[in-house]
Predict the structure of Uracil-DNA glycosylase-like domain-containing protein.
Amino acid sequence: MTGRITEQSRQDYLDAMGIQTWFPRTVLPNALAHRDFDFPEAVTELEEVQELTAREAMLALGLPEHLEQPEPVPEPPVRPTLVTTPAKQPEKQESKAPATAKKGKPAPATSKFRLVTLAPNDECLVIAEMPHSGLNQFTRFHMRLLNDILRGIRHTSQPDLPMGEFVWPLGNVGLIGQMDQDDHAATDAVCAYLSNQFGLARRKLVLLFGPAAARFVIEPERSFEELRGVQPGMHAEQRFAVSHGLNELMKLPTLKAEAWKDLKPLLTDQSPLPKPSTEEN
């Protein structure tokens, strides 16, 4: 038993003496006017009442007014523990070798390119690299430069050529987002597109302007400088001719001399010229 009274007994004593222990925070509608209280005196009276009621409750229970407080139980001494810091492990040096995928394959690349494809005649196919984003990808100025190149290698061009466009990567929607879109997948997709839309295998001459056009039609692991010039195509009667992009030739006219060196061997090894189209503008 302790010398304290319960909260309910305390509330009963306060209610009998007319002491209110709570006050509303806001004025209630239709409520009576509140009484004036002197809060310092009210606090003092409340403390005296609490002390008086506690004494009366102890006397009613037959307990002395003052109970001796028991001596606190001494707490057992806390045994110090030895805190040991684990030895710092030497940091592993990261390998500086290029990251590779499983089974020795190179890590997936994130190449982005845009190719514009058109067929000047039945024997020739032109694949030109354009900026990956932006407007006016292939303008009349590009077409004028291309016609000059075709005349230089003794090829004719039909008016109003149908034009195709290939953009990589394909996107990240549905099943397309789940497929691999590395450089090898890009090469397969470009070759499938050119074969289905423009008959790549039956073209005797394929002109490739720009690094992306050369790498993703011939071999993505070879550099652009290795691919420049004229080389055998997919079969004995086909030739691949690689040179700078049409955009680069328009921005840097000095590259036209290098482009001519790349394409000039076509004049020494060339099948009979196709007949010019009868439709003229």
Remarks:
- The domain at 109-267 is CATH 3.40.470 (Uracil-DNA Glycosylase, subunit E).
- The longest helix spans residues 39-60.
- DSSP finds eight helices and six strands in the chain.
